[in-house]
Write a structure and sequence with these properties.
Oligomer: single chain
Number of strands: 4
Mean pLDDT: 79
Shape: flat
Distance between the termini: 82 Å
Strand order of the largest sheet: 1-2-3-4
Structural class: alpha+beta
Order of helices and strands: HHEEEHEHHHH
Helix content: 40-55%
Length: 175
């Protein structure tokens, strides 16, 4: 066995081990919980995470997202989330999702314990909060309205309708 084969074997082994570490269930669970908590502003809990590299699938059980305004309730409580990708298509630079399932969705459920996130004094001093923060769903709706400019579309006329009317007015009557 020559040195090139040994180097390829070592690189492949190190790559596989590092991929297994990066996709470990504990790390995936921690990333979802901390990222979700930072995004929502209240506790996000994941019961268990299962990541399988050989068939590229993720399985989450018991995802709970706390209501910011009532930290004793969950906005959403999802029993199970499954996602599986097609490995052969992925090797061809295509993305085919074989399984995408969200099961046992429950809204506005009671929590077993308080889902409040305690902020440090410096974070509270930097960002003064109003008496009532908008919930996650209200904030998402406001952001979507601003980005899509729904209010201006509903109040005014669409550009295509204006163009159509101007063409209609300037037409010569030739059909």
């Amino acid at each position: 066995m020559n040195w090139i084969n040994v180097i390829i074997l070592v690189i492949g082994s190190v790559g596989t081990i590092s991929l297994e570490i990066l996709c470990s269930p504990l790390l995936v669970k921690w990333a979802i919980e901390t990222g979700g908590t930072a995004l929502v502003g209240a506790k996000v809990d994941v019961g268990a995470a299962t990541v399988r590299i050989h068939d590229i699938s993720v399985d989450l059980t018991r995802l709970e997202v706390t209501d910011v305004n009532n930290t004793q309730n969950n906005i959403v409580d999802i029993g199970r989330i499954r996602l599986a990708l097609n490995l052969n298509a992925l090797l061809e630079s295509k993305t085919i999702i074989d399984v995408a399932a969200v099961e046992n969705i429950r809204l506005n459920t009671k929590r077993r314990y308080d889902g409040r996130v305690w902020r440090t004094r410096s974070a509270a001093a930097k960002k003064p909060e109003a008496s009532r923060r908008p919930s996650f769903a209200e904030g998402a709706m406001d952001t979507a309205k601003k980005k899509l400019e729904i209010d201006s579309l509903l109040k005014g006329e669409l550009a295509s309708v204006k163009d159509d009317r101007s063409l209609e007015a300037s037409s010569t009557g030739v059909t």
